[in-house]
Amino acid sequence: MKQLLATTFFVAASASLVPALAADGTCGRVTIANMNWQSAELIAWVDKAILENGYGCSVDLVPGDTQPTLTSMAEKGEPDIAPEAWINAMREPLDKAVAEGKLVYAVEELGEGGVEGWWVPDYFAAAHPDIKTIDDALKHPELFPDPEDPSKGAVHNCPSGWNCQITTGNFFKAYDAESRGFNLLDTGSAAGLDGSIAKAFERQQPWLGYYWAPTAILGKYHLVRLDFDVPYDEAEWNACTSVADCAAPKKNAWAKSEVFTVVTTRFAEQAGPAYDYIKARSFPTNEPVNEMLAWMTDNQATGEEGARYFLKEKADIWTKWVPAEVAEKVKAAL
């Protein structure tokens, strides 16, 4: 059952009564992009809670998405903070904005970054320690039977219409999976892909296919990513791996998707100790984020509810980001 969480924890100050960031380094009004995916929503509300209750800021969350938010920050100086910016697709304009003194890469929010690849269940990996790479797995179609054709192995594809469907298909060709006895199984949708994983875990059956992190699924079901056998080749990726219907893809690896907190230079220069918190707020691994997303999904929780749960139950993580006196103020507000 969804847990009912009080919302009075988050201070609702009127932006019109609170000045913008003050020149003397005190924290005034701060705007944070509330991005439209689960992990970004969670961290936006965590930032709001800590900045308001620990540093006395007045925080407004504003709707956001990667490209429009980062473009607005560079061109207009608003919002002040993009807590979870997946920057690979915008690296060139972002680097330019940083070089021009408009934006700052404050911290690598996800130390592992966004992680994509082919995965197997942890119980399968433990039972088959010799299977560590994609090539290792493709030597054994009998271990991953296709439910519709048990004489073949199955690789579960990325959801239809997503870019990863193209890259997974090209990986399937590059690793000669078909000639090695495998079918590429169309899961249809994200729900279909998630359902196939849940079914495998419920029955403790083998499973092989595409997935990514951080996600709620990896918080609930522990998957192990297979090594790629080769390093990431950017030229090959751009020329073929990510291109639909590429005739002769070569083996490749997924690049790490870098995930940073990006702030305006004005915020970095004027927010004082509040910026020190942002610079410290990072997850070295995706595991705690996966766990939080699983909790939010299971409880149908909002970002606000997820943030309150995180601050109550994961103090061992977030108290390392702030001085002791700030941590006590935040705890007192719970």
UniProtKB/TrEMBL annotation:
<feature type="domain" description="ABC-type glycine betaine transport system substrate-binding">
    <location>
        <begin position="29"/>
        <end position="313"/>
    </location>
</feature>
<dbReference type="Pfam" id="PF04069">
    <property type="entry name" value="OpuAC"/>
</dbReference>
<keyword id="KW-0732">Signal</keyword>
<dbReference type="InterPro" id="IPR007210">
    <property type="entry name" value="ABC_Gly_betaine_transp_sub-bd"/>
</dbReference>
<dbReference type="GO" id="GO:0043190">
    <property type="term" value="C:ATP-binding cassette (ABC) transporter complex"/>
</dbReference>
<protein>
    <submittedName>
        <fullName>ABC-type proline/glycine betaine transport system, periplasmic component</fullName>
    </submittedName>
</protein>
<dbReference type="GO" id="GO:0022857">
    <property type="term" value="F:transmembrane transporter activity"/>
</dbReference>
<feature type="signal peptide">
    <location>
        <begin position="1"/>
        <end position="22"/>
    </location>
</feature>
